[in-house]
Design a protein that fits this description.
Chain lengths: ~475, ~180
């Protein structure tokens, strides 16, 4: 049974791989580890987060371009750089921004086996693939791209802001296995998404055709779903402050509701080898309030307008060629705005890690604490990622997790991901009596000049952690 | 051991604080965002026609005529992106003629009140022994004349068959396009 469970998690973790704050994964001193793996091994008996400061997380990345590519102060023309950058990117390059702010967090051991944790956090997640076709068409036009399609399927993005209410249980099954689950209630504030679009626009050179070119739009079906956007759009003259206040007013069940689940486990293979895996945000948000859907669809081709040279005298009206042309285009290339509810699946995140511990130390004895041995050093590797519209975004991290003493710990990591091959991260946590502070940052080598960084992320938090 | 612990702590503190303090954005000039513009070159087909000798017969009298014309409104020329962001236009006109006669082509661009803004006039070469002969004409409207395109809303195509002795039979195919260059 146990091996089946582990096998299930390995399969899930391996196929739905994800990246989500890898520096905080499997840090058994920190309550935040329960947010990325509810089945993590922990060695504290309670925690209370400092409201709004227990976790601040920011990460941003772009696989195709960095700030320097566009805004380099090197005397060259910025529009040339924009053009070169756009040409060098492809439609699988992406931009992402993720931000989380923990509003409230608390947890406690209810008995020797179970740790209950709950809280509220706000999350913003934006992810957009580079819409290469439409972007090149807008920036350069079709003149240099005859016979090459501009693909509408390149338009693919998701964006959401929500408040998450969660309640999790961490259960120590036996001396080897710890499992956990976290139920989540999502309160959507804003959502916009456009995925699975189809269609292309092509200007064909037609040496044997009736005109020089033939313009074709084939199989166009572009759908943009939004919720929470319509009221902002209708409020003319709304300031940023007012818009923010309007959005925040939906934080507490004012918006669209969804449900999700995190699952996780950790298993001690032998004294020193530990396996762990988790799947986060298996859930969906049901968008039905303040919904607007914008759909553009159809197919059409043209080689121009054809005058008929009719016999007209001065009193006859000219043939309305243009009006006829516009009517034909409107009949074939249509757009509509509707208010149909839709469901958005949360970007599933998954983690799988394997650790080797050495340098044993013994924990202080506590009647609620089962874990007796801890290792001063942990060498580990972690496979992680997030499910995005065009597939999984992978990241592979190796790390050295070192406990300096009872109050201090650091973790150095090296990650391979779509952004960089030189992603070195560092996490440091220190506890003063019961007051804990942690700080983690990824891609440290890029910090001296963030303009040349393809990604950066930062996590900061402070809380009270109880061990007795 | 305590020495090692303090040393590591200080190193880590130094790195994290150093990263926080030294992290900066340099070698870039964000003011350049004011200079970012889109400059697409768009190829657009304009008018086409394929006509034969029947188009030069007056349907009411059955007599032949040497002059025909038609007018097409190009409403898109009144759109804001043309009025504000059009930089230059290169028109291309092509006639393929099998008529054994020269034909005068006048392509006139008129404003809404029918004032001619500019015109492209040329002679279409006659076909040779029934074989098609191609006549091509380019007209480049550069920045200092672009206001003429902005004032235009109608395109008038006129054909005037020139006198000749042979039998007036054949076909005349017309193709036209514009290369519209914008700077948004």
């Amino acid at each position: 049974m146990m091996w089946r469970l582990i096998g299930f998690f390995l399969i899930i973790s391996g196929t739905v791989v994800a990246q989500n704050k890898p520096l905080l994964f499997n840090v058994d001193d920190l309550p935040q580890t329960l947010m990325s793996n509810p089945g993590a091994q922990i060695n504290f008996t309670g925690h209370i987060g400092i409201p709004l400061f227990s976790q601040i997380h920011l990460s941003a990345g772009s696989t195709g371009a960095d700030l320097y590519d566009i805004f380099a102060d090197d005397g060259t023309n910025i529009n040339t750089r924009v053009q070169e950058t756009m040409r060098s990117m492809d439609s699988r390059d992406y931009f992402s921004v993720n931000q989380q702010l923990e509003i409230f967090s608390i947890g406690w051991k209810i008995d020797r086996e179970n740790y209950l944790s709950t809280g509220i956090y706000q999350e913003m997640d934006l992810f957009a693939y580079f819409p290469k076709g439409p972007a090149i068409l807008a920036n350069e036009g079709n003149s240099d791209y005859l016979n090459q399609p501009f693909d509408f399927s390149d338009v693919s993005f998701t964006g959401e802001i929500m408040t998450v209410y969660h309640l999790g249980i961490n259960h120590k099954f036996d001396n080897r296995l710890t499992v956990g689950a976290r139920a989540k209630l999502y309160s959507g504030i804003f959502n916009a998404e456009s995925t699975g679009n189809t269609g292309r626009f092509t200007t064909y050179s037609t040496p044997d055709g009736r005109n020089v070119y033939n313009h074709e739009v084939v199989n166009m079906n572009v759908l943009i779903n939004t919720s929470g956007f319509a009221p902002l759009k209708e409020e003319e003259g709304m300031t940023v402050d007012q818009a923010t206040a309007e959005l925040l007013s939906r934080s507490f069940f004012g918006g669209n509701v969804g449900f999700g689940l995190d699952l996780g486990l950790s298993y001690i293979l032998d004294e020193q080898f530990i396996l762990s895996g988790s799947v986060q945000d298996l859930g969906a948000v049901f968008q039905h309030k303040e919904v607007e859907n914008y759909r553009y669809f159809g197919a059409y081709e043209t080689s121009g307008i054809e005058p008929l040279f009719p016999d007209l005298d001065e009193n006859d009206e000219a043939i309305p060629y243009w009006d006829d042309f516009e009517d034909e285009v409107d009949r074939n290339l249509r757009d509509e705005t509707t208010n149909e509810s839709y469901t958005t699946w949360r970007p599933i995140k998954a983690n799988f890690a394997m650790e080797y511990g050495f340098g044993p130390a013994f924990l202080p004895c506590h009647y609620l604490s089962v874990k007796k041995v801890r290792y001063m050093n942990l060498l580990g590797m972690q496979l992680s990622g997030v499910k995005r519209p065009k597939g999984f975004v992978y990241s592979f991290t190796t790390y050295w997790d070192r406990k300096i003493n009872d109050n201090q710990r650091f973790k150095v990591s090296y990650s391979l991901d779509d952004y960089s091959l030189t992603n070195i991260g560092l996490m440091y946590t220190r506890t003063f009596n019961k007051f804990n502070v942690h700080l983690a940052a990824n891609n440290l080598l890029a910090f001296p000049n963030l303009a040349k960084a393809h990604s950066a992320s930062l996590q900061l938090g402070m809380q009270l952690i109880f061990n007795d | 051991m305590k020495f090692v612990s303090n040393f590591i702590t200080k190193i880590i503190g130094f790195i994290l604080i150093g990263c926080a303090l030294c992290s900066c954005v340099k070698d870039v000039d964000l003011e350049q965002r004011e200079d970012i513009s889109l400059s697409p070159d768009i190829q657009i087909d304009l008018l086409i026609y394929d006509i034969d000798q029947s188009h030069f017969i007056d349907p009411s009298t059955g007599n032949s005529k040497t002059h025909i014309s038609d007018t097409v409104r190009l409403e898109f020329l009144d759109d804001s992106y043309i009025q504000e962001d059009l930089f230059s236009v290169e028109f291309y006109f092509r006639h393929i003629n099998t008529f054994p006669r020269e034909i005068e082509s006048k392509i006139r661009f008129l404003s809404d009140d029918n004032r001619e803004q500019f015109a492209v006039n040329y002679t279409i070469k006659p076909g040779v022994d029934g074989n098609p002969v191609t006549t091509e004409q380019f007209e480049f409207i550069e920045e200092d004349r672009i206001h003429l395109v902005r004032r235009t809303i109608k395109m008038v195509v006129e054909l005037e068959v020139q006198p000749g002795s042979g039998k007036f039979e054949g076909e005349l195919d017309f193709a036209s396009k514009g290369l519209f260059s914008f700077e948004f």
